[in-house]
Specification:
With about 180 residues, this protein is of the alpha+beta class. Helix content is about 55%, strand content about 25%. It has four helices and five strands. Strands 1, 2, 3, 4 and 5 form a five-stranded antiparallel sheet that branches. Strand 2 (about 110-115) and strand 3 form a beta hairpin. The protein starts with a helix and ends with a strand.
Amino acid sequence: MEKFNALQPRERWAVTAGAAVVALTAAWLGVYDPVVSSRYALERRIEATKTELTELAGLAERYQSIRRRFTALDAKLAAQPEDFSAVTAIESLAAAAGVSGQITSMTPQPPQTMEGYEEQPVTARLEEVTLPQLVVLLESARGAEHYLRVKRVSIRPQYKKPDLLDVTLTLAGYRVAR
């Protein structure tokens, strides 16, 4: 302190101003800047967490929806008779849609078992079918008492009668694997 008092007033003022600048710089770099940076980092993390929570809520809703669909599917499959045949189900749908006379072939494919379910795909060829008849057939497959899924539809208009269609249709019936 003696050395400071021995300085000229102008020198004391310069040393004091320099010390104040050093103190302010140290306070800025050591306290204020880290606090502000941490605050901005926390705000970004909060926004990221909110986004993640929104996505998680959407995924949870999607999971619940899929779970409900599988529960309904399991109930529908449990109600099916044990001797369920996809070929028989498709024939009855075709008769209800009025296209059983246009079926030229039905080829069952080997069943495949996946995760406790047996899939029985059947490929049916229909000739000289109108578009409304095809729509009725597909809609009746969707609303059938047995669980049927349309796997593939190939439509080709006939050359001589463009109003009539040749259709190759692959439907799959399902049941609980034994």
